[in-house]
Amino acid sequence: MIAWNYASASLFCFWWFQPDIQHVSIQHTPWWLIFALGIILPSIFLCLAKSLEYAGIVRTELAQRLSVVLSLLAAYFFFHEQFNTLKLWGLGLGISAVLLVLFGQINSSANHQSRKAIFALLSVWCGYAAVDILLKYTSSLGLQFALTLNLIFITAFILSISYLLLQKTQKWQFKSTIAGLILGILNFSNIALYVKAHILLKDSPAIVFASMNILVVLLGILSGVILYKEKLKWPTILGILLGISGVVCLASAMA
C-alpha cells in the first residue's frame, strides 16, 4: 500500500500541477531535496507502523502532531520568523507534552518494550518535523516546486518498490495495490494543499505548521479511545492537555 500510494500520488501531482517537464534543468534541479524526501516519506510510514505497534495510536498521533514544535524552531532559526510571548509559551508547552508522552510510556510496559516505544515515538516526532521543514523549503522553489514534488513522489515509489523486491518475502496482493492507489489520492491531497498553504503564507510558516495540527491531534486521540479502546494513563492525559494548549497558543499568537 505504501509503495503504490506514491504511484497514484505522482500521477495526480502531474495531472493537477502540470509541471513543465520540457524545460527541466538537470543542473538547477534540487536533487538532494528530491532524494531526501524520496527516502523520508516512505520510511516515516514504517516508523509510524512500529510506533503504533509499541506505543499505540494515541501516543503516536500526539508525537506525530507535536513535531510542530521542531518545525516552529525551524521557522525561527532557518526561515527567520519572529516569535512573540504566546509562540514561546506554545513551544514550552509542546516540548513538555512530548517529554510527558515519551517518558510516561515507561510506566505502562516492560523496560525493553518501553525503550522500543520511546525510540519509535522519537522517530515519528523527528521524521514528521523533517518532512514539514523540507516541504516548506519545496514551496519556496517558485515555479519549480511542481516538478520537484512530482519527482519526489516518483523517487519514493521507485525506492519503495525496490525495498519490497529486496525483501523477497512480500506477497503481492491486488487488493493492497488498489488500497494503496486510493491512499495515494489522500496522501497527494494532504501534501499538495500543505505546500500550497506555505506558498500562500510564505512569510508565516509557523501558522501553517500550527494550524494543521490542532484538529488532527483531537481526532487522532478520539479515534484511539473510541475505535481502538485504548486506555489513557495520567502522563498521557496531561501530555495531551499540554500539547493541545501549546498548539492553541501558537495558533492564537498568529491569529
Q: What's the count of strands?
A: 0
The biggest beta sheet is recorded as: none
**Number of separate helices:** 10
Specify the structural class. mainly alpha
Relative strand content:
under 5%
* Secondary-structure element string: HHHHHHHHHH
Structure commentary:
- This protein is mainly α and 255 residues long.
- The protein has one domain (1-15, 27-253).
- Helices cover 78% and strands 0% of the residues.
- It contains ten helices and no strands.
- α2 (31-65) crosses α9 (214-226) and α8 (205-211) packs antiparallel against α10.
- The longest helix has 35 residues, at 31-65.
- The termini are far apart.
Question: Which helices and strands, and how do they pair?
Answer:
Elements (H helix, E strand, L loop, with lengths): L1 H16 L13 H35 L2 H10 L7 H20 L6 H29 L5 H23 L6 H27 L4 H7 L2 H13 L7 H20 L2
Helix pairs in contact: 1-6, 1-7, 2-5, 2-6, 2-9, 3-4, 3-5, 3-8, 4-10, 5-7, 8-10
